[in-house]
Design goal:
Elements: H1 2-41, H2 51-54, H3 60-66, H4 69-113, H5 116-119, H6 122-149, H7 151-175, H8 188-245, H9 247-258, H10 269-296, H11 300-318, H12 321-329, H13 333-362
Helix pairs in contact: 1-8, 4-6, 4-7, 4-10, 7-13, 8-9, 8-10, 8-11, 8-12, 8-13, 9-10, 11-13, 12-13
């Protein structure tokens, strides 16, 4: 009888302990999601530079950890490198877009100058080369300044420094043991789990998924534009072939298309159509090159594949979240650390792949200490 009563009491105690653990897990999860949702409404991204400012009051032990000199140093290191990386990224992309536009305009202006209407205007004929020279000079200045200031190299180097600081920041949280006399209602291990769950699993998975959609959409747009350019090229090519194979028919087409078009004295309809086709061919070729170069900056297919793979790996790791929470409630620091390190390893490898693609796309990204300041 006594054994039965003892077993019943043990079962009841176990149920009550399980209920208490579930309640603490829900409280911790809800508190983290609440401040994250509030920050999201204000378009604030939670990173090492502002995580401490948004933590709920019940996460006192984690707040204490983030106030240490080491963590504050990593926080400042991340902030500086992240801001510098964003600055150099913006400068590089703006200079590349300006270069592409300027060279296309140079080509387009030259092509238009070949048309009979432009060539018949002496003032316009003299102005076009000057305009082309000015556009090329501006483009070369943009290129030279970007190369001299090393925008691309500094973007990669500063991004690497920012990601390295972020990784050490979160690894610092993993390695922190916490005080044995801590009185937080929510266990320190569970605080770690929920912070990583939200900011290293959920936020990063959402970021990767959004990047996949962005790059895939960008690649589809590129495909549509190139299809249009290709169709235009086929039409122009067909006209050229027709002029060679069916010269009489081509002459009739030229007379039909160009008879009402003003043209310089003495220029035939055939010559007018030929000059127009030449100009269109140059413009189409320049447009195709501009589109290809513009989308090369984003490397859509390569990064979409990388982000998709990382998002999938994060999904697989997230399957262990329930067990990690149980381990945290049982005080199993080893199991918790393994779960959190698995997350960090995936994100670290993602940056390594990004840096490899970044470097291969534009030469070598050197160490930050070797780069000149702004």
């Amino acid at each position: 009888m006594n054994a039965t009563v003892s077993a019943a009491k043990a079962a009841t105690a176990e149920i009550e302990e399980q209920a208490r653990s579930d309640a603490l897990i829900k409280t911790a999860r809800d508190q983290v999601d609440a401040y994250a949702a509030a920050a999201e409404k204000q378009s604030i991204t939670i990173t090492p530079k502002n995580l401490e400012d948004h933590l709920p009051g019940s996460f006192r032990e984690l707040k204490r950890t983030l106030k240490t000199q080491q963590m504050q140093g990593l926080r400042n290191e991340f902030r500086a490198a992240d801001e510098a990386s964003n600055l150099y990224q913006t400068r590089y992309r703006n200079s590349e877009r300006a270069r592409i536009i300027l060279f296309f305009l140079t080509l387009a202006v030259g092509a238009l100058a070949l048309t009979p209407w432009a060539s018949a205007q002496a003032e316009l004929a003299n102005f076009v080369p000057r305009l082309q020279g000015a556009l090329v000079a501006i483009a070369l200045t943009v290129i030279a300044s970007s190369l001299y200031l090393k925008h691309y190299e500094k973007w990669g180097a500063q991004r690497t420094q920012a990601e390295y600081a972020k990784n050490r920041f979160f690894v610092g949280i993993i390695e922190e043991q916490g005080r044995t006399d801590a009185t937080d209602e929510i266990p320190f291990l569970l605080q770690k789990i929920e912070i990583f769950r939200r900011h290293r699993l959920q936020d990063q998975h959402g970021y990767m998924a959004s990047k996949v959609k962005k790059h895939e959409l960008s690649n589809r747009r590129r495909g549509r534009l190139l299809y249009l350019v290709g169709a235009s090229a086929i039409i122009v090519t067909s006209v050229v072939v027709c002029s060679i194979v069916f010269p009489d028919f081509y002459t009739r087409v030229a007379d039909w298309m160009m008879s009402a078009v003003p043209k310089p004295e003495g220029m035939t309809n055939v010559a007018t159509l030929a000059a127009t086709i030449t100009a269109l061919t140059i413009i189409i070729s320049g447009l195709e090159a501009a589109i290809t170069n513009a989308f090369r900056i984003e490397q859509d297919l390569r990064f979409a594949a990388h982000f998709r793979d990382t998002a999938h790996q994060l999904e697989l790791v997230s399957n262990g979240l329930t067990d990690a929470r149980r381990a945290a409630m049982n005080g199993d620091a080893t199991a918790v650390a393994k779960f959190l390190n698995d997350i960090e390893n995936i994100l670290s490898k993602e940056h390594e792949r990004w840096l490899s693609a970044h470097t291969n796309n534009h030469g070598t990204v050197r160490e930050t200490k070797d780069l000149d300041p702004v």
